[in-house]
């Protein structure tokens, strides 16, 4: 009897696994051969790529472009190592990509974007799609051509229907979320004036914050990144002409006020990546005092909790001061210890997804990006401004 029960359990597990596998949306990779004409190469010189799943029905003329995330490389050695992985070369990437969360084609899992044309831009330059330089010492060659990759993919998508888009959303997660900040205005300029263009940054609000030893770890990292990859010329000109240190314009808090395109910011106030790499990087905790706290918030002592609370407060102040110049957008800032919430079904739209005032992330983004069309395109119609302003105020009441 025990053997029979065991076999039955195995069969049930297999059946469950098969059901889940069959429901996955795997989208094939599309290489961009034309990118070579403008020098749009991955770190190792391979061609860039994207994954496109066509929209249908009412969403057939709507487009969602999602920048892939994956950190950065800011020195030759780390970039050489990265060039031999999927983060620096399409040669090492899976040819099929799993679309879920904001990229899902299931209306019950992604109610506002399921039938749009959805594109995932593969990340292989290590500079948030923003560099324009080349390293060649006679032995090794590295291409820092993120901006050219971005341009090449757009040029490839325009004749495939992007040029006729009715609505277009530029999004991204982590380093891709930073990319959506950096390219938001450019994306709006590329598309026809009658296209409703908006941007969404998920976990891309990287802070210029001192670490626990009062060193500028993240600032130094970004400064080296900007210098190595030739990014400075591609940063927001209003920002770079205003700051004494133009490289700081890699941080959204310094250039966000110059973005006029409607923008939605999705971030946690306790962003776990910044907690581990900016606030308490390994260089600032050589004794491992923070190890247990990093693993579980319940293990943090009183002083550590105070430091985390201060970081949260600094992020909120930076977000609000950056966005006070414009009402053309929204925010969903929760208090989860997480990083990236739009690409995972659990956090994007599920029964136990994070909520603020009974709104999931997907619902909040949909309300602002899709349904507040009048206000977000600058047309104050039927009291949309009051509704939208009220909505933003509720979302910012963080537990």
CATH topology: Rossmann fold
Rg over alpha carbons: 22 Å
For the residues shown, what is the average pLDDT?
88
Determine the fraction of residues in helical runs and give it as a percent range. Answer: 25-40%
SSE string: HEEEHEEEEHEHEHHHEHHHEHEEHHH
Helix vs. strand class: alpha/beta
Report the total helices: 14
How many separate domains make up the residues? 1
Notes on the structure:
The protein has helices at 2-23, 76-82, 146-157, 175-190, 217-229, 237-242, 252-255, 272-279, 291-295, 302-323, 345-348, 361-371, 373-376, 384-395; strands at 26-31, 49-53, 62-67, 96-98, 117-121, 133-136, 141-144, 167-173, 196-202, 263-268, 329-334, 355-356, 359-360. The strands form three sheets. It has a nine-stranded mixed sheet, sandwiched between helices. It has a two-stranded antiparallel sheet with strand order 6-7. With 399 residues, the chain is an alpha/beta fold. It has one domain: Rossmann fold (3-Layer(aba) Sandwich). It contains 14 helices and 13 strands. The chain starts with a helix and ends with a helix. The longest helix has 22 residues, at 2-23.
């Amino acid at each position: 009897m025990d053997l029979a029960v065991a076999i039955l359990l195995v069969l049930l597990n297999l059946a469950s696994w098969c059901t889940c596998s069959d429901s996955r949306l795997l989208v094939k990779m599309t290489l961009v051969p034309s990118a070579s004409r403008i020098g749009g190469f991955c770190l190792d010189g391979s061609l860039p790529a994207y994954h496109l799943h066509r929209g249908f029905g009412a969403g057939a003329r709507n487009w969602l472009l999602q920048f892939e995330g994956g950190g950065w490389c800011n020195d030759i050695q780390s970039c050489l190592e990265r060039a031999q992985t999927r983060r620096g070369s399409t040669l090492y990437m899976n040819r099929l990509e799993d679309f879920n969360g904001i990229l899902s084609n299931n209306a019950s899992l992604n109610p506002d974007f399921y039938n749009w044309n959805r594109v995932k831009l593969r990340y292989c330059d290590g500079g948030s799609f923003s560099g324009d330089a080349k390293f060649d010492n006679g032995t090794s060659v590295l291409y820092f051509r993120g901006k050219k990759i971005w341009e090449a993919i757009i040029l490839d998508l325009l004749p495939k229907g992007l040029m006729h888009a009715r609505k277009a959303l530029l999004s991204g997660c982590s380093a891709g979320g930073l990319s959506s900040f950096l390219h938001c205005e450019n994306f709006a300029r590329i598309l026809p004036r009658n296209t409703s263009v908006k941007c969404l940054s998920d976990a891309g609000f990287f802070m210029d914050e001192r670490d626990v030893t009062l060193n500028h770890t993240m600032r130094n990292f970004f400064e080296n990144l900007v210098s190595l990859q030739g990014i400075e010329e591609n940063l927001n000109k209003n920002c770079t002409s205003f700051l004494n240190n133009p490289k700081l314009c890699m941080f959204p808090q310094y250039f966000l006020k110059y973005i006029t395109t409607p923008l939605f910011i999705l971030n946690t106030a306790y962003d776990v990546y910044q907690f581990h790499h900016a606030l308490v990087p390994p260089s600032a905790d050589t004794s491992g005092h923070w190890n247990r706290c990093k693993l579980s918030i319940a293990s943090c002592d009183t002083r550590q909790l105070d430091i985390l609370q201060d970081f949260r407060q600094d992020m909120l102040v930076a977000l609000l001061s950056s966005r006070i110049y414009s009402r053309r957008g929204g925010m969903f800032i929760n208090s989860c210890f997480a990083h990236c919430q739009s690409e995972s079904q659990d956090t994007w739209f599920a029964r136990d997804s994070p909520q603020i005032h009974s709104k999931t992330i997907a619902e909040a983004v949909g309300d602002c990006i899709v349904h507040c069309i009048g206000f977000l395109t600058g047309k104050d119609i039927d009291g949309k401004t009051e509704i939208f302003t009220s909505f933003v105020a509720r979302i910012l009441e963080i537990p």
